[in-house]
Amino acid sequence: MDRQHLIETASGRRQxxxxxxxxxxxxxLTGEIVTGDIAICDGTIxxxxxxxxxxxxxxxxxxxxxxxxxAHCHVESSMALPEIYCKEELRSGVTxxxxxxHEIANVAGSAGIQFMLDRSEHLPIHYYVQVPSCVPSxxxxxxxxxxxxxxxxxxxxxxxxxxxGEMMDAKGVVQCRPDVMEKLTLxxxxxxxxxxxxxxQEVLQSxxxxxxxxxxxSVAFEEARAKLRGGMAVLIREGSGSKNLEAIVKGVVxxxxxxxxxxxxxDDKHLLDIHNEGTIRLCIQRAIRLGMNAITAYQLAxxxxxxxxxxxRTGAIAPGYRADxxxxxxxEDVTVRDVYFxxxxxxxxxxIPPMPAIPENIRxxxxxxxxxxxxLVLPDQKRYRVIRMVENQIITQKVExxxxxxxxxxxxxxxxxxxxxxxHHATGYIGVGLLDNYGLKNGAIATTVAHDSHNLILVGDNDxxxxxxxxxxxxxxxGYTLVRxxxxxxxxxxxxxxxxxxxxxxxLTGKIQELTHIAYSMGVNAKMDPFIALSFLALPxxxxxxxxxxxxxxxx
Amino acid sequence: MDRQHLIETASGRRQxxxxxxxxxxxxxLTGEIVTGDIAICDGTIxxxxxxxxxxxxxxxxxxxxxxxxxAHCHVESSMALPEIYCKEELRSGVTxxxxxxHEIANVAGSAGIQFMLDRSEHLPIHYYVQVPSCVPSxxxxxxxxxxxxxxxxxxxxxxxxxxxGEMMDAKGVVQCRPDVMEKLTLxxxxxxxxxxxxxxQEVLQSxxxxxxxxxxxSVAFEEARAKLRGGMAVLIREGSGSKNLEAIVKGVVxxxxxxxxxxxxxDDKHLLDIHNEGTIRLCIQRAIRLGMNAITAYQLAxxxxxxxxxxxRTGAIAPGYRADxxxxxxxEDVTVRDVYFxxxxxxxxxxIPPMPAIPENIRxxxxxxxxxxxxLVLPDQKRYRVIRMVENQIITQKVExxxxxxxxxxxxxxxxxxxxxxxHHATGYIGVGLLDNYGLKNGAIATTVAHDSHNLILVGDNDxxxxxxxxxxxxxxxGYTLVRxxxxxxxxxxxxxxxxxxxxxxxLTGKIQELTHIAYSMGVNAKMDPFIALSFLALPxxxxxxxxxxxxxxxx
Lengths: 556, 556
Description:
The structure is a homodimer of 556-residue chains.
Chain A: H1 3-10, E1 18-21, E2 24-27, E3 32-35, E4 37-41, E5 44-49, E6 56-58, E7 63-66, E8 68-73, H2 82-91, E9 94-99, H3 102-119, E10 126-131, H4 149-152, E11 161-167, H5 170-174, H6 178-186, E12 191-194, H7 201-209, E13 214-215, H8 221-229, E14 233-237, H9 245-255, E15 262-265, H10 271-277, H11 280-289, H12 294-308, E16 325-330, E17 335-341, E18 344-345, H13 360-363, E19 383-389, E20 396-402, H14 403-411, E21 415-421, E22 430-436, E23 443-447, E24 456-460, H15 463-476, E25 479-484, E26 487-493, H16 505-521, H17 530-535, E27 545-548, E28 551-554
Parallel strand pairs in A: 1-6, 2-7, 8-9, 9-10, 10-11, 11-12, 13-14, 14-15, 19-22
Antiparallel strand pairs in A: 1-4, 2-3, 4-5, 7-16, 16-17, 17-18, 19-20, 21-22, 21-24, 23-24, 23-25, 25-26, 27-28
Helix pairs in contact in A: 8-9, 11-12
């Protein structure tokens, strides 16, 4: 951006690069629909008023919004590389993503963070990074890496690092644990993201006074309101799994709450869902249908998120703002017709820029110990705590079963064996337990996508198939695999940190659909996504009972 | 602020220093009235919820607002030193002022800015400074100092410097004049204040694209709206002279405009007016009476201004925010009962902290050339352009009078002589002209408060009294004086840079009232404030005709 060029263009002394005419501008700064020519210079809006040049884009009376902002997402959760992920975001109007490379950091540490920064460097999207604060998420498991404040310092001054990623260790904050305080202090002055599912008032106040500025974990309206009152921004989450928009927006509309500190995000959303319905455009559409003023909904999607993250030149159609524009056929249905990044149609930008080679340590991240017949033996106990899966939710329930019943229930296919194998450093840590309500028969399923430490999760009704599944994922260096009666049925290869595919959307989603189909045919409970459900079983921060490579964990 | 103390207090492990109970909290973050105990630790709000300690302030059901913010003011215009000015602001609830020491900078340059920073260092108020961008205001006059970008650099990292003061040189911005660009670049990343009275669309767009972020010059609603659409924050001005609140607020309410980028300010307001009616509290009251939602009006007065100026811990009642609180007897009348700064009643803080000695160059700023009988001779012309004063406004009109009529009109008392003497460096520059509609007889009036260069203005119907008035102001080193028939009638001494008194409110306002009374008795037009009107006659940025030490200036 050359300020002199911009001023000369704004004042009419210099010809704009391109002028958008005949648009109905969604003016999120004032909450109005206005008209005017949008003059672009050097990828930036120079002025809105009366402008002309030979290069005119005629919007033919359509609405034009500032580019949308996805205020919190984990690219790795899409199983696609940044360039593939961002292409899908761009298609439906998102021109800025605020990402937390928490998943890859758990596998590859700071090298993983750097990989995502490098990989997104030249993409036609604003790609900001909140540096993961909690790697590993808990001391109850082994991740691929441990990131201390000192390890994060190298990212502090990166131009696309906006702050510190979601602080999941609320207890550490409340107890002023030195390692937590050190990270908060290091990133003071930047944005500290929170992660605080429903908490008592004094925990919330402590968390807020520590300077944590955002949260995307609110499920109920009252929870969101308490956080807003505490000074946090609430990022309303509408992902593939967690859908919090309806509850929060309904409450906001009903109570007439101030919306300045609200924005939209997806947290985790599948690539196919993004492809089919978009991310933030869907949020806007749903919010409007729930009674939110239309322009307010666009504010949440644009300027609000920009202000929350301190992005100065993003989120509005006004002089000096980046020329990221979304042309819409319908204001209320949010039907995206065209998307412009820096004044250039993303169709023209569709060619992915040349990408750096993927480092070896990112490409080879699955390191298993030697596995034998006795590797998956259930510890001998009188009573067993069993993880009972809850349909359509990621929480679990604890049930107890006496030793005498276990074998029968397993034989009847009512209980499955579950194992988590530390897969980063071949340390040999393996947690083995029992799983209820998943529903697999005559086989095994396995994945290296296992939040948040991404160890290897195995579920099956026999050890032989489980071990084969483990070996298959070692062979392909990560992914999802299904084994039936001694044979690999299908494998989704995710060789990038064991989390991401190196393929594009059609191959990736085709494979996911194939695996899902096979999983259901093998008896997996049809009321859950076989793979998502699996991937959360090792996340020891969500109630009620989990399993890690160190064994069973009960979560309060 | 010790974060650990705050977290311990918020979590209930440590006793708060004080707890405010039974208040109706104006929660500007959500737009609600809420209840809850406000726990204070180290001058900061640790939490809002259920708290206790031996030191309770019972608010007895009253409303409690975050401390008000005056988003743009010139302390020197009150003719009081910062400690006197701030005491009056505090009384009516203002706990944060954003000041532009533009007046003293015109007299004493960077030493003047430093003086105001030093003088405000330990006051019980948040005193932020926008460093003056335009000293002198125009090349059409001699000020006491010329401040280039290099002179301003020393203030860039001062913890209380929030940005660059009002950029009055719109032409310089539009033309990308290097000296202007250099200042904008220097303060990039901080807040650039604007000063753009009604301007054509392309000028406004140029000004916005240059990065100028605020403006306080809007008189009409449409003007304010155009600036908001351009991305600027609009500081609604309600001072002693310019009162723009009604027009802007009426429009905002009628059009349902987004209010996030609106705040209140006074620009110039007299000390007595501040004492009698307050500043921001009056803005809130008037906005509510004009139909603005009450909590929205409080948002303008608090969190909006804080966000506009990037003040992170100011403007709301929530964990981590400064415990600056205003207790109100009435939400809608904004009746201030008590004010707390950092949790301590400002009554207890009433003792002014020890002040540094006032530097010699600030105390002795009036340096006149030798003045003799021929110093004030009117230049010999066939026709004279006369400055005609307009009642109750600071604009003037140009009228023309033939040479033959001048002497008669002067003898009849219809025309007066006006002179502006360069008073900073005794250079001998004197502009002499004619003044209509001011209405003085048998005497002279003079002042060293003469926006923006603060040269010496003399008005009178005879040279002898005018010269005596000049000598009187030289003797007392600045102020206002009235001379009748060879005798000084009364003098308001303003020895601090020729702009500010070293006295408190009673003496200062008593003297102003005395002088005003005498001025009217000497025939000054009763439809204008004799001194304010005078002080703006040398400001060559306001239409239609002005006089400086270089002579008459016509302003487009």
